[in-house]
Design a protein that fits this description.
Number of helices: 8
Low-confidence stretches: none
Number of domains: 1
Radius of gyration: 20 Å
Number of strands: 7
Shape: globular
CATH architecture: Alpha-Beta Barrel
CATH superfamily: Glycosidases
CATH topology: TIM Barrel
Structural class: alpha/beta
Order of helices and strands: HHEHEHHEHEEEHEH
CATH class: Alpha Beta
Distance between the termini: 45 Å
Strand order of the largest sheet: 1-2-3-4-5-6-7
Length: 330
Amino acid sequence: MYDEGSRVNRHHVQTYGDPKQFGYHQFVPLFKAEKWDPAEWARLMKATGAKYAGMAVVHHDGFLMWDSAVNRWNAKNMGPKRDCYGEYVKALRAEGVKTLATFHHVRTFNWYLPGVGGLGGAIKPELTEQIKAKGWGLTDPGYGDLYWNELVGRKYEDFLAEWQAEVREVIDKYQPDVLWFDGGSFREGQGNSERIVLDVLAYYHSRAAGWGKSVEVLNKLPGTGKFNFPPEYGVLTFEEGRDRLGRVERPWIDDMKISDRGWCYVEGQKYKSANEIIDGLVDRVARGGGLLLNFSPKADGTVPDEQKASMLAVGRWLQTNGEAIFATRP
C-alpha cells in the first residue's frame, strides 16, 4: 500500500485515501471479529478430521493475535479486544485437537518500507529521504513498535530481542503442540540471529519436557532454497510442494491454501473442491508426507460456506478412509 503506483496502492488511495491520511495502523480498529465463535471453528476442525489446528498468531505486519504483555499491538488490547489465540486453543483442546501456532514476523523489520522487497532487508540510502518526506505514519517514532524499521530509529538487534520474547510468551502461555515459522534470517544474518533462534528452539523443547508432552517444529523450505533450520531437524515443510523432491527421506508435510489466490480471504476468489483436497492429501500420504490445509475466514470471524462445504466433505471421507491415512507408512 506504500509502493506508489502499485495495484494495491491505487486500491488503497481510491478506497481509504492517501497513506498519509490513512496508514496501516488505522486498519486495526476496523478488525473486530464480531461474529467469531472459536468453539464453532474448533468443531469445524474436528469435523474435518484434522489432528492439529491453529492460526497465524502473527503475520508479517507484526500485529499479535494473542493477549501480549510484550507489545501493545495485539488483539486483546486493540481491534477485537479478545485473546483470539488463547480462546481458540481452549476450544480446540476441548475437541481433542492438538494446537499449532504459526509465526511470520521474523520479516517485520523494515517490512513496511517500499523498495525493501518484503523480506525485511536494508533500505536503499537514496530512498530514505524520499520516504521520510511522505509524512507517513510508518516513519513516526510514535508507531515504531508496530512499524519496526530503521527510519523510526529502531535497531535490528532490539527487534530480534522482541521477536524472541513474543515467541517465548506464546510458548509459556499456550503450550502449543506444534510451531511453524515462515521464511527468514534464522540461520544467518545480522544481529546474531542464529544464536537467538537456537535459544528459542531449545527453550521450546525444554519447556515441553517440563510439560511432559511431545512437541514438534515444522521446518520450512523458503524460496531461498535453504531450510529455516538444519534439514536434520523437525518436520520438513514445503509451501504447496515447491522445490520438494519426489521422494523425501525425513518426515515432511506440504502446506496448501484452500483458495486459488490468497492465503487470506480475498473477495471473488474460488476454492478447492473436496475432491482436489483429498487427492492432494492421498498423494502426499502415499509418499510419506502430510498436509497442512490453510482456510481463509473473513475479518468478522465467519468462514465462507464454500470453504466449509469442502472441509466437511473431506471430514466425511476421512471417517471412512482415515485408517488408510493416519499413522500409516508410505
